[in-house]
Amino acid sequence: MGSREDLVAAAATVMRERGYAHATTKAIAQAAGYSEALLYKHFRDKTALFLAVLREELPDLVATAARLTENPGKAALGDNLAELTTTALAFYCASFPISISIFSSRDLLRTHRDTLENGPDLPIQHVADYLDAEVKLGRLRSDLDTEAAARLLLGGCFQEAFLASFEEREPRPDLAHRLAATLEKLG
Predict the structure, then answer these.
(1) Were 32 and a residue from 10, 25, 162, 183 both cysteine, which residue would form a disulfide, CB within 3.0 to 4.6 Å?
(2) Does the pLDDT at position 70 exceed 70?
(3) How far apart are alpha carbons 186 and 18 in whole angstroms?
(4) How far apart are CA 96 and CA 109, in angstroms?
């Protein structure tokens, strides 16, 4: 690994332990075994480092939804939905402890929101796009509100991640498949 990758991995660990708000660039650099000056050679600020953690250290929900959208009929609908919900649950479980502290301060939330290129609704749009592709194939009902379905599916995953984090437990192992099966039956 190079210094940039080491810093991203250390940031993921420190942010998971302390939350975004309390993870300092100094602590992240120390955890990676580098100077804070080197951290700033790779990242303009902590938000840029946080975004790198989201892109590089967590399950890629957007990429999974985009890939399924490009090839909706390649696998069975239930398998696609199960992969999507499993990835979503893993993403939210991994990101929840890191990002929840952003809400500890309105200023921090505003600053973070202003620096994001794409908001947290991006996965919803990608999942809705995938469900639209399945509707076009006739594998889901033509009258399905795909945006609402995407919000229900991802909302269920997000809620389970919240509960698992709050209760300090693993997410229910069968929930992703149950959510996928329920959507498949509705569609």
Answers:
(1) 10
(2) yes
(3) 40
(4) 15
Tokens of 31: 């955890």
Q: What is the per-residue pLDDT across 97-124, written as a single tens digit (0 to 9) for each? A: 887 777 777 776 777 677 666 677 888 9
Domain of 44, in residue numbers = 1-57
CATH code for position 65: 1.10.357
Q: Tens of pLDDT along 23-32?
A: 999 999 999 9
Are residue 102 and residue 169 in the same domain, yes or no?
Answer: yes
162-182 average pLDDT score? 91
Neighbour tally for 21: CB within 10 Å: 18
In the chain, the number of structural domains is 2
